[in-house]
Amino acid sequence: MHHTMSFIQRNVFVVAAGLLWVFHIPARAVEPPTVDELLGYLHVDKAEHANLLKGKILSTNLAEGSQKELAIGIVMFVPAPVEKLVEFVRSGRWFTSDRDIIAVGELKEPVTADSFPGVAAGQSNLSAAEARALRSGESFRQLMLHRFEAYRQRGLAGIEPYDRGGGKVARPGAELQGALQESELLARYFPELYQALQTYPREQPADIGHRYFWINQKVEGRPTFILTHRIALERPEGSFMAEREFYVGHSYNSLFLLAGCLPVAGGSVVFYSNHTFTDQVAGFGSGMRHAIGRNQMRDEIVKNFEQIRATVTRQ
To answer: Are the C-beta atoms of 201 and 208 separated by less than 8 Å?
Structure first.
């Protein structure tokens, strides 16, 4: 379960990074959730509302639709306005504090094979066709370009399964679809974002933007290559973002996270949910593996959220 802790810190950074993207969203019929409604959708006891505003970081287990899924939710009060959180991220200090990230790059048009780094060694999450192509001399960069283009053209349906041998595969596209279906909060309060993810790449609202990144990050002490898709919106009532890791080189299969920030009296409430899919918690002893994995994720995320809050409030 060590890998769970290895990639959590970057995911907490993504929570903050999502608050940076500014989109001008027209008035909508659906209002953002109140704090009590937010706690309800995250299955946190509403009696904890007062404790939240006193500084307690609340966490909860979320519904998991697969033996391979680990899902948790976190809510935190920060005694600072949303604008201060955005400025903290814009300064770049949180990003540079993540020692597990080796390199990161945004994928902007025109995207070619040269847009990707040549990280091939140790990337075991490959389709059978990709493994054959590497053995035949095709570059890892070219394989990643194919994956990126397939996702851009077909969305989740374009994600090739990872070959596990013996006729078995892991299906990150199906995992990410399942995680989206589980997100009641997104469907209820941010229907345009939910719909954009559901229909991607078709029928995308003009006022919602998309960004794509490659990340080279240490997971279990080894470099892994990750392709991510981020989509976010911000308006006066708050900010919300989602991220899909639609390719991961090893250790886990895929990841779907949601994060946002709501202004409240005296500061902001930051909320976060993480759905990580890994073969390492499935099979015999799955219940115990899930409990250990969730606890590791929770402890590491809470520690990093405490760090974010302390840094922001000192500014």
So the answer is: no
**Contact yes or no for 175/162 (Cβ under 8 A):** no
Tell me how many degrees the CA angle 80-81-83 measures, rounded to the nearest 5.
Answer: 125
Q: Which residues lie across from 240 on neighbouring strands? A: 233, 260
Rounded CA gap, 240 and 229, in Å?
Answer: 14
Question: Where do the domains of the chain lie?
Answer: 2-120+171-314
Task: Fill in the DSSP letter of residue 47.
Answer: G
In sequence order, the β-bridge partners of residue 163 are 169
Tell me how far apart the alpha carbons of residues 213 and 245 are, in angstroms, rounded to a whole number. Answer: 9
Instruction: Note whether 281 and 68 are within 8 A (CB).
Output: yes
The answer to whether the peptide bond before residue 110 is cis (omega within 30 degrees of 0) is yes
* Residue 107, helix vs strand vs coil: coil
**pLDDT, tens digit, 9 for 90 and up, residues 95-145:** 455 567 888 899 999 999 999 987 767 889 999 999 999 999 999 999 999
CATH of 2-120+171-314, one of 3.40.50.970, 3.30.559.10, 3.30.1390.10, 3.30.530.20: 3.30.530.20
- Using the structure block, give the residue that is written with the tokens 């993540």: 98
* pLDDT, tens only, 267-299: 999 888 899 999 988 877 778 877 877 888 788
Percent composition of the chain: helix, strand, coil (DSSP 3-state, to 5)? 40, 25, 30
Tokens of 304: 């990093």
